[in-house]
Amino acid sequence: xxxxxxxxxxxxxxxxxxxxxxxxxxxxxxxxxxxxxxxxxxxxxxxxxxxxxxxxxxxxxxxxxxxxxxxxxxxxxxxxxxxxxxxxxxxxxxxxxxxxxxxxxxxxxxxxxxxxxxxxxxxxxxxxxxxxxxxxxxxxxxxxxxxxxxxxxxxxxxxxxxxxxxxxxxxxxxxxxxxxxxxxxxxxxxxxxxxxxxxxxxxxxxxxxxxxxxxxxxxxxxxxxxxxxxxxxxxxxxxxxxxxxxxxxxxxxxxxxxxxxxxxxxxxxxxxxxxxxxxxxxxxxxxxxxxxxxxxxxxxxxxxxxxxxxxxxxxxxxxxxxxxxxxxxxxxxxxxxxxxxxxxxxxxxxxxxxxxxxxxxxxxxxxxxxxxxxxxxx
Length: 378
Fold this sequence. Notes:
Number of strands: 11
CATH architecture of the largest domain: 3-Layer(aba) Sandwich
Number of helices: 17
CATH topology of the largest domain: Rossmann fold
């Protein structure tokens, strides 16, 4: 009997030890996979200056407002998303993260979405996320209100000032990425993303820093999308892809920033050496060429065959990877010597691959024609 009891105790010991340490049955027996990361409470100070306590790493997330979901995908958190806004489910040419993760469109709706809508509290609660990431839609008070009504931690993110076209990316964007990494257990990944973005900016700036201003070509970017497609008179001061490479954007002399509507006669007086056209509005420009051929033929860039495309990068705020791709292409055109080692197509796919896990340049060709010289009036 003593031998039998000893044998039974030996057989039971592993189970007793597991139970005492908070263990459970094996994944094969229970059908579940144990959580690798230890969950612990942590206080996070978000971009609205709010201190939010939540258990990290989380398993289920939602992201609402312009750009919030994009940042989650950069952090390799797409598999944790449990619902998306209706606006994300619609056709979204050029919205890179939705091209990289089309399966997200099959997820439940968490509200209408859009830059001017209020969060749908009932829909958010319905998908039961562990955290709500939100960008642009709320201020500090509204974030507190959303958190109180849903009972779900709300973390406010920011892209910084680049969305208004006033500067390059800033620390608010990098802080947002780092916060997401901490919350979803992807700290290493978001550190790599931040380092990569900073390196891209540095590389672009370093290439042209020694080019004297008087030797730089005058450049104009037309047909820049602004809440829809626009014609050649729509442009942008401090256009980020040109800012990154220190190019001479003729519009910057206005002293203004962001999207601008100029008088077309002003473009004649500027008479830029190089003309870039946002591919989103290119069809409007070609139609205008038919109606006003003399105007276009008066421009030196048109006469000299110096008209090139840019892929639209603003779609539910800034597609950062496309903005960088545009900058490398613009650099290749404006500063050929400084960018002689760059193949814009390969560079674009490198950027898409790193940030979104897929080479998406072919998708941009399908939607917008890709990078190429444009022929106006021919």
